[in-house]
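Checked the freezer inventory, then went back to the computational side. Two predictions to log before the end of the day. The first one is the construct we discussed on Monday; recording sequence and tokens without edits.
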Amino acid sequence: MENIQIEIINTSRNPLPSYATEGSAGMDIRANLEEPVILNPLERQLIPTGLFIALPGQMEAQVRPRSGLATKQGITCLNTPGTIDSDYRGEIKVLLINLSNEAQQINNNDRIAQLVFARVEKASLILVQQLNITERGSGGFGHTGKQ
């Protein structure tokens, strides 16, 4: 696995994002809050992290939910995975939603999401009149499922 260097500014009092284990795909990122945020059922809020990054070209950072937060508190990320483009220099913020039936509290330094770094390719679209035929064809959602 290649180790890519990413420039980061951390304006929070929290530690830098890090991998929880050697095999982790995502780095945990934390809430940067002056006071706790209460998320009521089905409420969503943009949570700041105090982090700013400069990605190399042909890279993206994907903001993804943390499974523990979803399982234990019913909190997940909207717009998942959220993409941070290589030319974005603003603060990383995480759009959280509470899918539980109870109000949930987010505190400063809580691990709220994870960042996964990935390479991206640019595509050129070619306008055609017909696509090649495949076994699946135009079958949609669930088309290859149970018979």
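The second is the one RB wanted added to the comparison set:
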Amino acid sequence: MKIKSIIISQPDLSTAKSPYTELAEKYGLKIDFRPFIKVEGVSAKEFRNTRINLLNYTGVIFTSKTAIDHYFRISQEMRLTIPDTMKYFCISEATAFYLQKYIVYRKRKIFYGDGRLSDLINVMKKHKEENFLLPLSDIHKPEIPELLDAEGYKYTKAILYRTVSADLSDMPELNYDVMIFFSPQGIKSLFQNYPNFQQNDKIIGCFGPTTAKAVRDAGLRLDIEAPTAEAPSMTMALEQFIKKHNKL
């Protein structure tokens, strides 16, 4: 059977000229976007139990816009006023500019890297005397604290949000030929929402080695994997597979 329908387990962040739109038009596909996971903020009560006081820190490290949102959310819920002297260290310029949502950008001490954590660490070297707070999700890349530890920075991890399974009860059946995943949590959500899920002829694709491992550990067959040398993006991997499969 030819591939006709695909579900992408992420929000639809595409534009009119996105690779997924082009793929759908080129091969006559139905492509739906549905997040299998969601971000949920830690409550002020739960955060108080960690005994972390946001005002005890002189610098904050932001590796994502989500971290910024939850840092200022928790400070507001706890009725804390972040001092104007606070220094902000952001993974990228785009992340730094996002701070404008919460502070007067030009009046604050803001530093940023080029999108790589290693570059941000270098930027921070001129400020090693600071006491840093690192807002994170409960599921985060270990290299973030590992790099900070290796360079001898004084910092505290603050879990301000967590990744949980989305409620898919309004979608009782997965009537798609292809299912695409981007995180191990997506696979976990699949079985939480569909405990009797059987892959059978469904084609499963994923992005990233940790997601690929989660697919295989769950006893599923991984049919499409990215990134590879031939397919650095998920849409490229999909297109290559569709070309071969639809000729059968």
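For RB: The longest strand covers residues 155-165. The chain has two domains: 5-36+168-245, 40-163. Let me know if you want it refolded.
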